[in-house]
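Sequence, structure tokens reproduced for absentees:
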Amino acid sequence: MEHLVLRAAPRNVATKGELNKNRREGRIPAVIYGGGKPAQSIFVYTAEYEKILKHITESTIITIDLEGKKIDAFVKDHQRDPVEKNLLHVDFVEIQAGKKLHAKVEIKLNGIPKGVRDGGILETLVHDIEVECDPSVLPEKIEVDISNMEANQPLYVRDLPAMKDVKVLTSPDMVLATVKFARQEVEAVSAAEAAPAAEAGATGTGEAQSAGDAKASSTTEAKS
């Protein structure tokens, strides 16, 4: 994906009325934290931010162009109005070049597992992992081909493809996804439930036969 650039402007206004006026005019109040410097108050442009928002994850690095000054950052968070859903504020975290960072990277599972094609159901348990690396080699996402994944064959963190200069912090034994056979489980439960009923039926038949034998015996004795 092409490198994402977001234009920004300095923000000096602070009153609620002034901030709302800027929002109506298409500018979102924002703050850039980190980088070993004091926080910077800025405006970003609503249309531009909404456009890139469709293409970013927690590990996507974007460049904020603050009137010619380039700042690499993550989108840390943004707030929307709970009713109108329009953007109210954005928080960015600046990245320092040459300094390792911790970040969450999305796991993207590609293909339809063999176990699913055989009738199983894919369960995705974890959607991202935590890594440590230099910002220049941070992967935006990690893609895994699961086409050959069998039923009851878990996909572990240790099964992910190796990434040069990227240290995975998440436990290698964590299960990311697995394929289960729901149909077999239902059949097993049905069989287990049917067994006591069959036993009860057999017992009831035995008791009825015993009662019938006793009745016949009584009738014979009476005739004698």
Notes: Confidence is low (pLDDT under 50) at residues 205-212, 214-224.
